[in-house]
Design goal:
Blueprint: E1 2-8, H1 12-28, E2 33-39, H2 46-51, E3 59-63, H3 70-80, E4 85-88, H4 100-108, E5 114-118, E6 125-126, H5 131-143, E7 158-161, H6 177-185, E8 189-193, E9 195-196, H7 208-256, H8 261-284, H9 293-321, H10 329-353
Helix pairs in contact: 7-8, 8-9, 9-10
């Protein structure tokens, strides 16, 4: 059996057309199927309209109240599905219903674990897109190159063997559920050419917010795929911003606050450490529970101070025993000390502070 999942919000006019089309297409191809509509409590009556087809077609409707989001709607559709193969597509008629059998056949034959409809291989395309929409689409695809080799990673049209979803840590943000599933389940993927059509009825869900959510989603996928290496890069970026904060505070206190450089340096260090702690807790590692924040902050400051000692020790050793005491070698000794301290601080933060 094939389960076709349609996430919906305010698609009452489109749902009237697409449900009969899916049923007729799959019936003509001899494919047993069900159509699962997951609606986010559409005020236009989409869920009620879809339920009305239940007496004529194999339609299952789940109306979600208080929860919204295309990706999470698809995840709920996966849970409701009874088919061995799940097909995900938009309900706005932009994905060609006629290609569903082509999406399913490679999985049935064992040639692939998943198929993705793409606009960017021979036979694919899009109808009447303006230049700006094309640039946004290609740009989004380029940004995803670090996590996938799909030619059209922002496609919302896919079919996948349901067994691959069992145990997968799916945690999507926004609307790119196909990208999430492909990256997290690592299936054998076959791309199927499709001609994408802009919706004729209703309003587009492509907004500035959805594009920001896409960038957030990509960040999470990179972090998931590259693990500690990506965390280390994030830690270094936060550290670089901390150096800037340290310098600004130091200069401001000396030039405008009449403090001595040593006294200003101590305050600048504490401000920069607080800055780094805040951003590392939000961005690099998981958030610290409220009851543990004071202890975590103290541990972070202690590790940073120990890291300073590591830096000075490495620098001293290289200058005294490795012949790097003269100009300009002391600069390289300092950089080596910074690198050693950065690794020390990262490991301490990862395994002690934000464990």
């Amino acid at each position: 059996m094939v389960s076709v999942i349609l996430p919906t919000y305010n698609e009452v006019e489109n749902i009237r057309q697409i449900i009969p089309m899916i049923h007729e297409t799959l019936s003509a191809a001899g494919i047993e199927h069900e159509i699962i509509v997951v609606d986010d409590d559409s005020p236009d009556g989409t869920a009620e309209e879809a339920s009305g087809f239940g007496s004529r077609y194999p339609v299952v409707v789940r109306k979600r109240v208080g929860t919204r989001g295309l990706a999470t709607a698809v995840l709920e559709g996966f849970q409701l599905s009874k088919g061995e193969i799940c097909v995900v597509m938009d309900a706005d008629m932009s994905h060609p219903v006629s290609t569903i059998p082509e999406m399913v056949r490679p999985i049935v034959s064992g040639d692939a674990d998943a198929t993705v409809g793409t606009r960017y291989i021979e036979g694919g395309g899009h109808e009447g897109w303006p230049w700006f929409r094309r640039i946004v689409s290609h740009g989004a695809g380029l940004l995803a190159r670090g996590v996938t080799t799909l030619s059209d990673p922002t496609s919302g049209y896919m079919a996948i063997r349901k067994s691959l979803l069992a145990g997968a840590d799916l945690d999507p943000v926004g609307w790119k559920i196909v990208l999430e599933v492909v990256v997290k389940t690592r299936p054998r993927v076959l791309e199927v050419p499709i001609v994408f059509a802009d919706r004729q009825i209703g309003l587009s869900k492509l907004t500035v917010r959805s594009q920001i959510e896409y960038l957030h989603h990509l960040w999470k996928l990179h972090r998931s795929k590259y693990g500690s290496w990506f965390q280390f890069l994030s830690f270094c970026l936060v550290g670089a911003s901390g150096v800037l904060v340290d310098t600004v505070v130091l200069v401001s206190l000396v030039e405008f606050g009449s403090l001595t450089p040593i006294g200003a340096a101590v305050i600048a260090f504490l401000v920069a450490v607080s800055w780094n702690y805040r951003w590392n807790s939000m961005w690099t590692f998981r958030r610290v529970p409220p009851g543990n924040r004071a202890k975590a902050y103290g541990s972070f400051v202690a590790i940073c101070m120990a890291g300073l000692l590591v830096r000075v020790s490495v620098m001293y050793f290289l200058m005294e025993y490795a012949g790097m005491g003269g100009k300009p070698w002391y600069v390289l000794a300092s950089l080596a000390g910074i690198l050693a301290a950065t690794v020390f601080n990262f490991l301490g933060a990862k395994w002690l502070v934000f464990r």
